[in-house]
Amino acid sequence: MHALGVWVAQYLLWLMVAGFAAVWAFGEQRRGKITLGASAIFGLVLALVFMLIASHVHHDPRPFVDNPNIKPWFAHSPDNGFPSDHSIAAGLIAALVTWRHRLGGLVFCAAAAAIAWARVAAHVHHLQDVLAGLLLGGVAAAIAVAIVSAFLTRRITSSAAPAHNEPPQH
Q1: CATH number at residue 89
Q2: Is-contact 124 60, C-beta < 8 A?
Q3: Cα separation of 39 and 150, whole Å?
Q4: How far from 39 is each of 99, 101, 150, CA to CA, in Å?
Q5: Residue 72 falls inside a structural domain
Q6: What's the DSSP call for residue 166?
Q7: DSSP codes joined into one string, 79-104
Q8: Within 13 Å and on the Cβ side, how many CA atoms surround 3?
Q9: Residue 146 belongs to what domain range?
Q10: Cα–Cα–Cα angle for 14, 20, 22, nearest 5°?
């Protein structure tokens, strides 16, 4: 159980990244690739901004820093644990995949929850760190999707409208 928890806490996120790339490459048509890719890039930037702001607003020492009797399952720096960057990334990926592929998104949501749980079980985060990370990742995805969708809809609508200098067709 310990080895599985360590693997989930440290490496499942990379499997999520690979899964996201597979969804993008094989699960989307051209327009979907553009929408999902742009949302991912914009969402990642937002998630990083949210992470920086949150870490400056709230400081939460890691469990093994709070209590020296607690030993983390793997080596980790004693920096601020709030919010969990692994959880932010997992939340972002899970939300983006769920937005495009509901059923497949459930698998990504389960993986994100597993990562959050494993980081707490491994004593490198408190529950508030991972919950805040999942929430911030999801919010970053929602904002990115809304902005990218609005931009693409406006762009398609404006390119479909006839130009003002074209004569009317009879």
Answers
A1: 1.20.144.10
A2: no
A3: 11
A4: 11, 14, 11
A5: yes
A6: S
A7: SB-SS-HHHHHHHHHHHHHHHH-HHH
A8: 0
A9: 30-156
A10: 105
Written as six digits, the tokens of 74 are 């793997």
- Provide the whole-model pTM: 0.88
With beta carbons less than 8 A apart as the criterion, state whether 90 and 13 touch: yes
Q: 31-89, pLDDT tens digit by residue?
A: 899 999 999 999 999 999 999 999 999 999 999 998 989 999 888 888 999 999 999 99
CB 125: neighbour CB atoms within 10 A? 29
Q: How many residues does the chain have?
A: 170
Any domain includes 37: yes
Asked if residues 23 and 97 have their Cβ atoms less than 8 Å apart, the reply is: yes
Listed in sequence order, the DSSP H helices in 28-126 are 30-57, 63-66, 85-100, 102-121
Q: What's the one-letter identity of residue 31?
A: R
Does residue 166 form part of some domain?
A: no
Structure tokens at 75: 């080596």
The tokens of 50 are what? 């949210």
**Total number of domains in the chain:** 1
